[in-house]
Amino acid sequence: MSAPDRPQPDRPQPSLTERRKAATQQEIALAAARLFAEHGAEGTTAEDVARTCGISLRTFYRYFRTKEDAVAPLLAEGSRQWIALLAGTAPGTPPLTALLDSARASLTPAPGRAAEALDWTRGLLRAMPADPALRDVWHRIHHDAETALRPVLARLAGLDPEGLDARLLAAAANTAMRLAVETWAAGDAPPAGAAALADTAFRRLAGPLLPPA
User: Fold this and answer.
1) Is residue 194 within 8 Å of residue 117, measured between CB atoms?
2) Measuring CA to CA, how many Å separate 152 from each of 49, 81, 95, 159?
3) Which residues are 110's β-sheet partners?
């Protein structure tokens, strides 16, 4: 008989100050995304975003360095959800199955993961070619996501988190997810299309690495 699972320690809950800060950041991010969609990144200033939120410019800069940084919480939300789902995968699940299931779940609209979030991402990705600073935010988010993925995937695959194999796996998985979302954003498919493209990307990535049948 296997030993019973040890109870996991409860994670500390965010303080009221932290929750208020997160709510303010999200409000600023949504305002920036709406203004970018209506006027483009070039046609939007930090003052515009602050005025829309009803805050001072000084308050805006307490939260974000630039107007492009203001949309980072929206762009990063999908990666955070994906990595959290992946981290919650049951031990013994094959890594490819874990990647497919978590990517599909994080990109499928559901309560708490509204289709609107993917719509914002699509609009922001389409604005990136005209705004290098916005593109830099996107790539920085994915650099951070790759770093966060490494220990999660290393645990699932039984790898050394600091080893080359774990680094390659995290880089490949993160790139597959990023390209799936970028490809979806460039077209007109509904939100469900993003999950389908992620599924395809992971399967094609795994294909050359699988042993011959």
Assistant:
1) no
2) 36, 13, 10, 10
3) 113
Q: Where in the chain is the domain with CATH 1.10.10.60?
A: 16-68
Residue 65 burial (C-beta neighbours within 10 Å; 0-12, 13-18, 19+): exposed
Q: Is 112 helix (H, G, I), strand (E, B) or coil?
A: coil
- What percentage of the chain's residues is helix, strand, coil (to nearest 5)? 70, 0, 25
pLDDT tens, residue by residue, 118-133: 888 888 898 888 889 9
Class of domain 16-68: mainly alpha
User: Which residue ranges does the chain devote to CATH 1.10.357.10?
Assistant: 70-207
Give the architecture (CATH level 2) of 70-207: Orthogonal Bundle (1.10)
Could you read off the pLDDT of 141-174 as tens digits, one per residue?
Answer: 999 999 999 999 999 999 999 999 999 999 999 9
Contact 98, 86 (CB under 8 A): yes
Question: pTM higher than 0.70 for the full model?
Answer: yes
185: left (phi over 0), alpha (psi -120 to 50) or beta: alpha
